[in-house]
Every structure is written in structure tokens, then in C-alpha cells.
Amino acid sequence: MNVKKCNKMSALTDRVVLVVGATGGIGQAVVEQLQETGAKLVLAARSSDRLQALAAQLPSSVTVQIQPCDITQPQQVSELMQAIRSEHGQLDVLINAAGAGLLKPYQKITAAELDQMLNLNLKGCFYTTQQAAELMKEQQQGHICTVVGILGKHSMAMGSAYCAAKFGVVGFSKCMAEELKRYGIRFSLFYFGGVDTPFWDAVSLKIDRQKLLRPATAARFIRAALETDPHAVPLELSLMPDSHVFF
Q1: Which of 77, 90, 126, 179 has the smallest CB count inside 10 Å?
Q2: Nearest to 120 by CA among 107, 101, 103, 134
Q3: Which of 98, 102, 101, 151 is nearest to 126 (CA)?
């Protein structure tokens, strides 16, 4: 764990913010945005080395806790939440930014590939949301933000396994939102169109990545939702490059 502090005032100042998938494209951009807010950051990802490298890049004024975690393993998610409770005693914001992509004809998707999509993109997100909500219920407030992606809202050829997971994320999030609203817990779902992240590295489609959204653009969108009026609930937010517009 690393601990540093910041004095800049924001709606997020002194709030405990957990970023899951902190070393990924959007996750890291979110961390870079939030370092300016005075939030107490908890960074989670699978690689301890990458987490340490990310934390080392932050200004010394930032309070940061790093916690390696494989979110496909419920016990590790439980240990993550216990570490947050021990260090901070609360959790105000969860940002689910972990995930992996797969675009492939349905008949060529293997059982292992389907399991990977469901284990990480659906079940892993379920575990973090489920266990973060239990911490938030105790304090009668919280904000759960999930980076779903536009393929959690729209279908696409070769996206069957990926969409299966992402549509599932939307479904369980809306159900949990209904169950948890009486505890002051808000949910925001982000439907970004193409974002230039490592998602596209293993995709065989020909994509002009210069026309995709920048991770920093997506991160600013998330930060704006987190800093909105406390009585306003940004429910479902879409942002797409003009070359990939869906309605």
C-alpha cells in the first residue's frame, strides 16, 4: 500500500473511490482524472507490478491504496473489500472498469472463450458490485459506476459472447439499483462507443483507431457524473465517436 494526500477541493474530496481495472485503458485514464479531486483512491487490478508503477506516477499529494485482485475469484474480491474497510472504514464510489473483449463469429467461439467473457465481464463485475454494495449499505450512501460499453445496449455481428456478458451486466445492475435505492446507493451505466484501448489489439476487424474516442475523453465523462449534484442521478450515459453513432 502507498499513502499520499491532496488538498484540492471537489465533490469527491476525501471520498473513498475504488477503481477496478485501474491499469487498463479507461481505468488508468480515470485514475489520472481523479488524482486532481482530493479523492482517496483505491486501485485494483490483477498485476501488482503494474499497480505499483501506476501509483508511483501519481503526485505525492494523492492518497492511494493499491490492492492486487482477480475479480473472477469471489474470495479475492472479499479480501479487497476487507482491505478497504481496514484502511478507510468506508467506500463511497465503485468504478467497474475491468474487462476483456472478443469479436468473433458465433460458430468459432470456443467454450473457453465464452467462459472468459462471462467470468470476467459478467461474473467479476457482479462480485465487485455485490460486495461493494454491502459496504455502502452500512453508510446509507454510495455510487456504483460501471463501464458497460455500447455493446451492452446494441447488438453487433461477431459480438455474441461479448454482448451476452455486457447485456447481463446491464440487467443485474438495474435489478440491484431497484433493491439498493432505499439505501441511498446510486447506479450509473456508461455506454461508450469505440474507445482506443487494448480492447482492439486482438480484434481482427479493420478499425481506424484515430477515429475512436480517447480514454481521457471517457474518463472526463465519468468524472463529470461523479461530481454532479448529489441529488441528481446520472443513470445511463452514452458517448460515441461521430464515426460510430448508435441510437
Answers
A1: 179
A2: 101
A3: 98
**Known active-site residue 162:** yes
Rounded CA-CA distance 196/104 in Å is: 19
Catalytic hit among 106, 162, 183, 191: 162
Q: Give, in order, the Cα–Cα distances in Å from 76 to each of 26, 120, 125, 157, 170.
A: 22, 13, 13, 34, 23
The Cα 195–Cα 218 span in angstroms is 8
CB 97 within 8 A of CB 30: yes
Q: Mind listing the pLDDT tens digit of every residue in the chain (247 residues)?
A: 444 444 457 899 999 999 999 999 999 999 999 999 999 999 999 999 999 999 999 999 999 999 999 999 999 999 999 999 999 999 999 999 999 989 999 999 999 999 999 999 999 999 999 999 999 999 999 999 999 999 999 999 999 999 999 999 999 999 999 999 999 999 999 999 888 777 766 666 667 677 788 999 999 999 999 999 888 889 999 998 877 666 5
pTM above 0.70, yes or no: yes
